């Protein structure tokens, strides 16, 4: 009985949390980012960030930050991005954290962005490496949709990898979507536009799932 009650309470709390996000959708953002494959890095450095997408929940307008956009503004051709990567990443992260400063009191909805490998901490670490000033997003303003769905529907609601499984169950077929292996290959091939398009596709998917 105790386990059943806990499950009911967990389900109810997750449902209330999701509803509260929509009740305050003017102050909610959905974030996703793409980066170098951390399993394939040749040293212990935090994976390089290639693109970040942030969507306003109430309007579906998306703000994006990407290596290739910064390169374009600096008139650096695609084939020269790799040799200028550090400076471009620094500018991209600086722009991102200026955005964070303006929205640090918003609710940030994400998918598994929980640690130094892939998460807010990873973005902060990369920014600090370049001396970029960061702005902290409070823990209570971060909402992991992956965990909320487990709390709402239970551990066995979908197979792994969960995001792909949910897409199949709901017949979601986003254009430009890349899975983890495809993103790793795109990074190795310096296909930064493709990575950026995939990041944009993923915030779109997260909003569809939240709905």
Automatic annotation (TrEMBL):
GO MF entries: nucleic acid binding
Gene3D superfamilies noted in UniProt: Ribonuclease H-like superfamily/Ribonuclease H
Designated name of the protein: Uncharacterized protein
Taxonomy of the source species: Bacteria, Pseudomonadati, Bacteroidota, Flavobacteriia, Flavobacteriales
């Amino acid at each position: 009985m105790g386990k059943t009650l806990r499950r009911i309470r967990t389900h109810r709390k997750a449902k209330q949390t999701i509803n509260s996000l929509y009740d305050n959708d003017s102050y909610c953002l959905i974030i996703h980012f793409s980066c170098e494959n951390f399993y394939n890095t040749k040293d212990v450095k935090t994976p390089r960030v290639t693109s970040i997408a942030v969507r306003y929940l109430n309007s579906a307008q998306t703000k994006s930050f990407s290596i290739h956009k910064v390169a374009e503004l600096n008139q650096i051709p695609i084939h020269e991005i790799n040799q200028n990567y550090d400076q471009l990443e620094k500018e991209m992260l600086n722009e991102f954290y200026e955005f964070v400063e303006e929205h640090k009191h918003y609710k940030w909805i994400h998918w598994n962005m929980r640690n130094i490998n892939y998460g807010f901490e990873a973005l902060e670490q990369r920014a600090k490496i370049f001396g970029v000033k960061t702005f902290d997003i409070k823990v209570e303003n971060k909402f992991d949709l992956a965990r909320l769905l487990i709390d709402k529907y239970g551990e066995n609601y979908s197979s792994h990898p969960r995001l792909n499984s949910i897409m199949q169950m709901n017949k979601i077929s986003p254009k430009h979507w890349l899975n983890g292996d495809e993103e790793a290959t795109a990074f190795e091939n310096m296909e930064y536009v493709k990575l950026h398009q995939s990041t944009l596709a993923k915030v779109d998917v997260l909003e569809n799932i939240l709905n």
